[in-house]
Design a protein that fits this description.
Layout (H helix, E strand, L loop, with lengths): L7 H10 L9 H6 L7 H8 L9 H4 L7 E3 L31 E5 L2 E5 L15 H4 L2 H12 L12 H48 L5 H10 L4 H14 L8 H26 L4 H7 L14 H18 L8 E9 L5 E3 L4 E3 L16 H13 L7 E9 L6 E8 L5 H17 L2 H4 L3 E6 L3 H11 L2 E2 L7 H4 L8 E2 L5 E4 L1 H13 L4 E2 L5 E2 L1 H7 L8 H8 L7 H15 L3 H6 L8 H25 L5 H22 L6 H24 L14 H5 L15
Parallel strand pairs: 4-9, 9-12
Antiparallel strand pairs: 1-3, 2-3, 4-7, 5-6, 7-8, 10-11, 13-14
Helix pairs in contact: 1-7, 7-9, 8-9, 10-11, 12-14, 14-16, 18-21, 18-25, 21-23, 23-24, 24-25
């Protein structure tokens, strides 16, 4: 058979177990070595001699059956190794794997013998017939000895195969030992990390390290380990941690502390909590120091603020590009109290409309008494709010406060005209119209007094034929071409318009459309649930608000009405279990289609950032014409006159501003929603969610 290869380790083990090399020999070769002249007597004498060893039967008598010799012809062998190492000796014991023949080894010769062996050889000296017939059985056992399959029972294996399994097990044991050592190291590492994490948790629980999140963020950004982070915390506790590179939130918090508590509170918290100092704030922010109005509003105070807040920073920045400018005016709530102004040694917080009745300068003790008596007699009042006015550069972010005057809310239209003219005159007197840009419009909210004053100030002069805007704007039928001096127009905050539209359709009175149907809260509550994603609870949230000033909720209601107007009630009834719509329901949806078109054309220019300026103008024009057609038919049943006036003024100002921008710089970016912002939101330092006052009069 084919020689069988065994490993070096197995060969070494076999050499230790079988030190003397034996080669299998055939019985015929053994018989030929016996001399023909030998006699049975000499053989008997050799066997019976004291030095002889007990031998197999075929060696005791020359003519006994030699059995079937197992050698390289019928059994796998390996070079330089005896054949018996490839024989499954364990199969000789009793059991299911026991061989069907006997095996004996003598003098290096391995022979198989049948259990019914005749004990005598044939005449030619070969094995008897039962032993000769063992060759197929021996070859079958040889095949099993040749193939070392996995999961073979140990009782079927040869010594060489057992040795190979043993070496394999030793290698597996060594691998498991190495793996166990690696696992021990991993466990030690994991226990170390767990201990580091436990230490970190204890440090976070017990240590009082300011700006700990900043420290952890910096350490993790630099790839520090847990142990290194713990050391950083320990160093921060021992030597003090001075964070650098404060975030925007930290700067805003420091600014709030400075505004509410002043420099002393900011310094104390900087030393304890390591928030940004006042010096850091001055490096990162532009501090604007506005001169408050003490007494009556004067052009000198406004000019001073324009020079310090706008012109000087623009000169330092070397800005030469002129942009359109809008003036924004609004009120913000303030603490109703008098304050001492050390710069002018006077009393602030008195309403500007009546403060001329008393001298606010504290020259003597009697001056304070006179102010007190005037407040008691109510000839002078403490300011309930602060009238805030400022400049906004069209197309840019930012608000530049120009006026802060306490008010007792007793102004009339004449006072508003005085404020408008004072601001415009101060702007031109300082030369800001040439250095920064021309005034284009004055924006405000829906205050009735400012509306009346603005109407008298900014709609008294028709657009001159000589104006460069006349050629464009005169070709727009229906556009009101009346302006104020220097073509200044009046604008209203679009967010206020949104809120007032939603307040109107939420009310019981509602809006009457051209077909006589009324869009109010009852109708909307009935139909809004037809929109996917809006149930009764969502409908109540849209229609019944806790805060009527909630602009995002107002926009959500407008979009819901627009979506509702696009539903066909007939198709809806066919696709649902609702009954076929009657005439009233169809009329309701006809009215919803009209109001949906109005609201959609109002909302798109201010919320869809993908529109071009031409598309914005188309939407605004469509809104203005639809609103005019509905208002001409229903008048006050559609909406109050004030809301109609504010809406049309807003559209008019947008058209005028676009024409002015084309004339000033047609290449500059321009976007309708960026025309103006509420100055109260920009000027206000802090306000609670319930709109309670948290700021002083200045």
């Amino acid at each position: 058979m084919k020689p069988r290869k065994i490993s070096r380790d197995t060969r070494a083990a076999v050499g230790a177990l079988f030190p003397q090399r034996s080669q299998p020999l055939s019985v015929l070769n053994s018989a030929s070595e016996i001399s023909s002249s030998s006699t049975l007597v000499s053989v008997h004498s050799e066997i019976s001699s004291p030095a002889s060893v007990l031998a197999p039967v075929h060696a005791r008598a020359l003519f006994s059956c030699p059995g079937l010799v197992i050698d390289e012809t019928n059994w796998p062998v390996s070079p330089d190794l005896p054949v018996e190492i490839h024989f499954p000796w364990l199969r000789r014991r009793e059991g299911v794997d026991k061989l069907t023949f006997a095996v004996e080894l003598f003098d290096g010769v391995l022979a198989a013998r049948a259990f019914d062996c005749e004990k005598r050889a044939c005449q030619d000296g070969t094995s008897c017939i039962p032993c000769s017939s063992l060759l197929p059985k021996v070859e079958a056992v040889a095949v099993n000895a040749t193939e070392h399959k996995a999961h073979t029972r140990k009782g079927l294996l040869t010594p060489s195969q057992l040795l190979e399994d043993n070496h394999r097990l030793i290698e597996q044991i060594n691998g498991l030992k190495l793996q166990s050592l690696n696992d021990v190291r991993k466990i030690k590492r994991a226990l170390g990390k767990l201990e580091d994490h436990s230490t970190l948790v204890m440090a976070l629980a017990e240590a009082d390290v300011p700006w700990l999140r900043k420290l952890l963020h910096t350490a993790l950004k630099n790839g520090a380990s847990i142990r290194a982070i713990v050391r950083l915390i320990e160093d921060a506790l021992e030597a003090g941690y001075r964070p650098r590179g404060h975030s925007t939130e930290a700067n805003d918090l420091a600014l709030l502390i400075y505004r509410l508590g002043g420099a002393n509170l900011l310094y104390a918290l900087n030393q304890r909590l390591h928030i940004p100092s006042l010096r850091t704030l001055r490096k990162k922010m532009s501090f604007i120091k506005i001169a408050p109005t003490i007494g009556r509003i004067s052009i000198d105070t406004v000019q001073k603020n324009i020079h310090n807040i706008i012109i000087v920073p623009f000169e330092h920045a070397a800005r030469t590009t002129r942009r359109g400018v809008s003036l924004l005016i609004d009120e913000t709530a303030a603490e109703e109290a008098a304050v001492y102004m050390p710069q002018s040694n006077s009393v602030g917080g008195l309403c500007w409309t009546h403060s001329h009745r008393v001298d606010p300068v504290l020259r003597t003790y009697d001056s304070a008494l006179r102010i007190t008596n005037a407040l008691k007699a109510e000839t002078v009042h403490l300011g309930k709010e602060v009238t805030v006015a400022g400049a906004h550069i069209v197309g840019e972010d930012g608000f530049y406060p120009l006026l802060a005057a306490p008010t007792c809310k007793s102004e009339d239209a004449g006072d508003m005209e005085f404020i408008f003219n004072t601001l415009i005159d101060a702007w031109k007197a300082t030369g800001a119209d040439q250095r920064v840009g021309p005034l284009w419009f004055v924006a405000t909210d829906g205050d009735a007094t400012r509306r009346k004053g603005g109407h008298k100030t900014f709609l008294h002069t028709p657009l001159p034929i000589t104006s460069p805007l006349y050629g464009t704007l005169s070709n727009l039928p229906g556009l009101n071409l009346r302006t104020g001096n220097d073509l200044v127009t009046l604008d209203f905050d679009f967010k206020h318009v949104f809120k007032r539209f939603c307040t109107l359709i939420r009310s019981r009175a509602g809006m009457y459309l051209n077909n006589g149907r009324c869009i109010n809260s009852f109708l909307l509550e009935r139909y809004l649930t037809m929109i996917d994603g809006i149930d009764e609870a969502a409908t109540c949230k849209l229609l019944y608000l806790d805060d009527p000033q909630d602009v995002p909720r107002a926009v959500s209601l407008m979009r819901a009405v627009i979506t509702l107007s696009q539903i066909d009630p007939v198709k809806w009834a066919l696709n649902s279990d609702d009954p076929y719509p009657n005439a009233d329901k169809i009329a309701d949806f006809d009215a919803l289609k009209i109001i949906g078109h109005i609201l959609d054309n109002l909302l798109q220019p201010y919320t869809n950032v993908n529109l071009t300026i031409s598309e914005q103008v188309v939407h605004l024009s469509c809104f203005a014409h639809l609103l005019y057609a509905s208002y001409r038919n229903q008048h006050r049943r559609l909406m109050p006159n004030q809301l109609y006036y504010d809406s049309q003024s807003m559209v008019k100002n947008a058209i005028f501003t676009i024409a002015k921008q084309q004339e000033l710089d047609s290449a500059a970016p321009h976007y309708v929603p960026n025309l103006g912002r509420r100055p109260g939101d920009q000027f206000r330092y802090h306000r609670d969610a319930d709109w309670s006052t948290n700021v002083g009069p200045y």
